[in-house]
Amino acid sequence: MQGHIEPGFEAVADAFRHNFSHHGDVGAACAVYLRGQCVVDLWGGLADVDSGRPWNRDTIALVFSAAKGPTATCIHRLVERGLLDIDLPIAHYWPEFGCNGKEAISTRMVLCHRAGLAAVEGDLRLEEVLAWDPVVAAIAAQRPNWEPGTMHGYHARSFGWILGELLRRITGQMPGHYLQREIARPLGLRYWVGLPEQELAACAKLIPPEGGSDAVAALLGENSLTARVMSGPSKLFGYNQMWNRPEILRAQMPSSNGVGDARSLARFYAALNGDINGVQVLGAAQLARACEPQSRGPDAVIFKETCFGLGYSLQPMVAPGAGPRSYGHPGAGGALAFGDPDAGIGFGYITNTMQFDLNGDQRSPALIAAVYACLARREAGGE
Fold first, then answer.
1. Are the CB atoms for 231 and 201 separated by under 8 Å?
2. Which domain covers residue 245, as residue numbers?
3. Residue % of the chain over a pLDDT of 70
4. Is the pTM of this model over 0.85?
5. CATH code for the domain in which residue 265 is found
6. Is the distance from CB of 3 to CB of 42 less than 8 angstroms?
7. With bands split at pLDDT 50, 70 and 90, how would you rate the model's confidence at 244?
């Protein structure tokens, strides 16, 4: 383990070590900001088991759906600037979208997973998905999976393509480029959607979960909605070694292939909570609206209780053990990034060791529990 911790946060380092000795981590990093200051910045283990490459300060990792938080934030910047009305039909900005029962679908419905477009229909090749235009055209042409607005179900990948195309239509920029210009570079973040070629060597090599690729299809059938969502489009995606391929990392999949370090994810949410070095990502009023619950209850896709605001996951699903107003997003297999505006926390955890545990992944909850225990001791006047 390397990095630094501020006095009083030693328990977070203990939990981080414990994840390696007891919970199977091979390579990981964790960072915590408290009221704009970095108080925990830890990393350790191996970035690449095959080569023995150690995880170092500049190692970055794929964070899967933890990408949804920054992507949603880009949308909220457009709203705040008066460039997007989330209650207008998406077809107002993207005319081709307004067909086959999608005429009334709004951006709000997509942000809170109520659009009925969880599974991308159509027959697509991988190179078409990675090329952007064919996959967004397929979404624009398809019918909804259920009547829009009647229930919520996790839009695992379509979320990013729909919102990303809205960004492109309104700003003229691809979503990853907009994110870099508006958020990542001003905040000094090492975080990308569409990883630059020169950063590929710094990326940790993903260790897929045992049986993770086929578990859903085996349980529910390969043509079930859940299997089509989690393996789609066109059954092209599984939780396997494909996510280590350079062309996957270089593509823009704004809900699924964000790549960055824990420090940057924590700093991102710290900046959302307030501002860092004069950079304010969103105003307080817009963030408050984004964190109002929109969908709560049994999820039609992933069959468990979920709670979504406008693009952010909310409690109790986002960060077990964190404050009640925490917001952010987990990523498949273990990654997590969130903010707690009451405690002033920005938190980021990344790992190359994917786990799908029916009893729940123990790694990030252990780190969260340690963070809040340290905060409680500080407030009580002890160290």
1. no
2. 2-379
3. 96
4. yes
5. 3.40.710.10
6. yes
7. very high
